[in-house]
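Changelog note: in this version the structure field was regenerated for every chain. One regenerated record is shown below for reference.
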Amino acid sequence: MFRRRLTLSLGLLAAVAVLEGLGAAAALSVAERQVERGRVASDIRTAFVELSATKQRLRTWVAQRQQGAGADTEVREALQLDMRRTLERLQALSTAAIQLDDSAATRDEHLRRRDAMAVLAASVSDLEAAVDAAEPLAPGADARQAWQALTAVFDRSQGRDVRQLIADSVAREAAAVVRERAAADASLAWMRSFWLAMALTLALLAMAAAVHFARALRRPLTHLSEGALALQQGQLRHRVPVDGVDEFSAVARSMNTLAAELEVHRAREAQERQQLEDQVAMRTIELREALDALRDTDARRRQLFADISHELRTPTTAIRGEAEVTLRGADRPTEDYKAALRRIVEAASQLAGVINDLLAMARSDIDSLSLVKRRLDLVEPVGEALAQAQALAAAGGVALHGDALPAGHFFVLGDAQRLRQLLLILLDNAVRYSRPGGEVRLVMKAGAQAGQRGRTCCVEVHDAGIGIPPHELAQVFDRHFRGQDARRQRPDGSGLGLPIAQSLAKAHGGRVELLNGLQQGTVARLTLPALEPTATALAA
């Protein structure tokens, strides 16, 4: 649209300029034609005057010839040639005058000129014959009569007065000269006025176009400049106002589209940068946690070494002391040696138990990341643990029962050997801290994680033993912690079983809880995350 207006304006200005040029050319052509007509009329007038003057000189030559004053024939011939040439020039000028202006207003003038030229041509022809025949006058001849005869030849032709004819022609041509000069001056004046009018018109049109386009361009150019500055400053939400459907509106829409795309790219870049920063933060947290885990592992390893040195020192010292005391004295009865050996066996058994506990603790601390997890039915390690614990229960006079274990309903992701070890610790504690004749019962059931989505598998070991005082429940998972009742019931314990069990449970994503029974005894509850049915079906 704006391009169309600009094209129309420039086309109008060009048309006015072309029109001015054409008008100037036409006016110049008219002026040149008027000037040329004036020059031809002046030349015709001059030719008539020259013809009259040549005719007078030729008359003078004839008079000299008649008077015998020694007139030269070459002069006569030159004058006659000059008259003929003047007539020829008059003919050519007359033809040019007709070609320049053959209007109705000048047609009578052309006819009169041709008529005068015809009379003059006849007069010149008669003069040439009379002049050629002119001779000096005889003595006694009448000079007056000769002069009159000569005058009749020079002044009249075809019954017309040649002098008056030439005078009228000169006057007519002089008037034509004045007329053509006035016409030429009028044409020049008109051409000057036309040029001034056209120049003024062109200037006014140019000024009007300049004012119009200045007003039309100011607002869109201002908006585009503001939009470009906003883009330069990064203000991608800025939008250039779009008014109409002209070229500037198209540019504004393009700039707005560009700004929108840049805004989208910037938002995407910011999002990706934020995601990258989040990932870096997460990796940093993971690295920090890994470092903390390494530090914790190192601390646990140091604690483990301290535990090993502490736990192994007492039974080792007891064995060594018993052996030294037995060997230091004189020969003793066999029963004394047997009693000493029994005490050494008991200390060795205690030492073996401590070594097993420490090895289990070492595995839970150091090898927790080396679990070989697979999809398995929790019924399998539960059944194996029950079978191994039956011997312990029989030795302690405790009845161990397990509810019916339906296979195919309790699937977990775990290490079967470690789960069996964990369950055996719970069963061993239940048997150890039960009174002879007591009962230990294992129950399996499904449940849900508190505050989370997903199913769980729950294994509970119920006993009717000595129980745990409420104020000691928060400490039972601390290493080497043993309550007063527990130390009285089993003085040989190390206090490492439950911490090992809790470590193994956490390694499988679960937990171990100890609760007091409804009437007496303790409930040890193992909770593990169960595989979803869909995952189970896919795995099957």
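Spot check on this record: Residues 534-540 have pLDDT under 50 and may be disordered. The chain has three domains: 2-209, 244-370, 371-540.
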